[in-house]
Amino acid sequence: MVKIFDQFGGWLRFYFVLQWITIISFGIVIILYVYSLFSAENINEVIQSVITLFDGLITIFLCIKIVKVIKLKKTNVPNRIIKLMTWMICFTITFEVVDLFLSYLALGTEWVDNPAAGKGILSMLIWYFVWREYFIRSKRVLTYYGQNAGKLNKVVKKGEAVSF
To answer: Which residue among 16, 157, 159, 160 is the one 20 to 30 A from 122 at the CA level?
Structure first.
């Protein structure tokens, strides 16, 4: 069975679907946090809701940018996607660190006993590096876009044989 890598499918389509799931789920989270913003009982809850809102809005914006470019068959698309993912991870980690710091200030010693603290950062880093490597090493990315991310010289033209 011959695999056709020059079509939009496989893990590339899965990544595209994940972006839509992120957009929808973060949209729901934003709605919930807007509601919690108005029902917050103290300033810490308000600040954490605002931080989550900003993080969600930026994530939605960057995911929409990825969705807009991912189907374009241009050689610069994999690098653009990695750049957008890098911005996304930087903003998310920054907001997560600020949120953890504010939780520490609000909860004091109770925060240290919380095993979930910081796991969001670890999972985001794993997500980032897995998908970054996909766009750098994937056969489908190479044949669909004509170039992998990070590769500036090797451009595959339509009809040219690709060795793996």
So the answer is: 16
pTM (2 decimals)?
A: 0.79
- Enter the DSSP assignment of 149: T
DSSP of 108-131: GGGGGG-TTTTHHHHHHHHHHHHH
User: What CA–CA distance (Å, rounded) separates 56 from 74?
Assistant: 29
Find the Cα–Cα–Cα–Cα dihedral 90, 91, 93, 95, rounded to 10°. Answer: 160
Phi first, then psi: what are they for 8, rounded to 5°? -80, 100
Distance between CA 29 and CA 18 in Å, rounded? 16
CB 51 within 8 A of CB 39: no
Say whether pLDDT at 121 is over 50: yes
Q: Tell me the three state secondary structure of residue 29.
A: helix
- Domain extent listing, the chain: 10-145
